[in-house]
Write a structure and sequence with these properties.
The chain is mostly helical. Helix content is 64%, strand content 0%. The chain is globular, with a radius of gyration of 18 Å.
């Protein structure tokens, strides 16, 4: 069967009616699980819709917001590989574009979404091959780990750096030193992948003009549990 030419409309993701938003999300997420290709424009349209889906979400039911964040971030793993890097790039570009307009009352939702999305992308890297690693390293280098302050707000980069080592661990790319007797049982494939990802931290530390980001990247680089995963400088 031929792949549908158009993605279902995202406009209902920002509806004031929760049932309409949910129906739209279910329809789009089902479509994406079989979508083999995405253009950059389509990925941006999708993530702008998902951004406002979370924006409109009523936080008065405590368990509902984490559930929605999990559903959104899990699309990164669910979408077919052929469209995965473009989809992730759409997420990071949307976050970079919209970050400055997030109010304090909604900020925690987006901080949690960034953490969950980073974990999912690291998971894709862990399960993927070398070409998939390369694609996602390029996406991360172009967006959240980019040194250009005009392109990526410091607030977004701080959050990514704050989550970096925790989510490498959550995704299974690194091992907990204490739990593994001084890191004696390392998966060599994961070590190589983690080293390529850690190179992004070093590059950001070296290239960013922001003193705060430079210091935070240095803190990540110097974390004891990351020592076995540092690339040669």
């Amino acid at each position: 069967m031929a792949e549908p030419l158009t993605i279902p409309s995202v406009k209902d993701l920002a509806s004031s009616d929760p049932s309409i938003r949910r129906a739209a999300f279910n329809k789009i997420s089902s479509h994406l699980r079989t979508r083999q290709t995405l253009t950059s424009t389509e990925a941006l349209q999708l993530w702008r819709g998902f951004f406002f889906l979370l924006w409109m979400h009523d936080p008065r039911v405590p368990s509902s917001t984490p559930k929605l964040i999990t559903e959104l971030s899990s699309l990164i793993s669910a979408i077919p590989r052929s469209a995965g890097a473009v989809f992730c790039a759409g997420f990071w570009e949307t976050m970079a574009r919209e970050w400055g307009g997030i109010d304090r009352g909604r900020l925690d939702k987006y901080l949690s979404l960034v953490r969950a999305a980073l974990r999912e992308e690291f998971g894709v890297v862990r399960r993927g091959d070398d070409s998939e690693l390369e694609e996602h390293v390029n996406v991360l280098a172009e967006w959240p780990m980019c040194a250009d302050q005009r392109k990526v707000p410091d607030g977004l980069r701080y959050q990514v750096l704050d989550c970096w080592s925790d989510e490498l661990l959550s995704a299974g790319l690194i091992e907990d030193g204490e739990a593994n007797e001084g890191l004696k049982k390392l998966d060599e494939g994961n070590v190589d992948k983690a080293r390529k990802l850690m190179q992004l931290v070093f590059s950001l530390q070296r290239e960013t003009p922001s003193k705060g980001i430079k210091m935070r990247a240095k803190d990540v680089w110097n974390e004891e549990r990351l020592a076995p995963y540092l690339p040669e400088r």
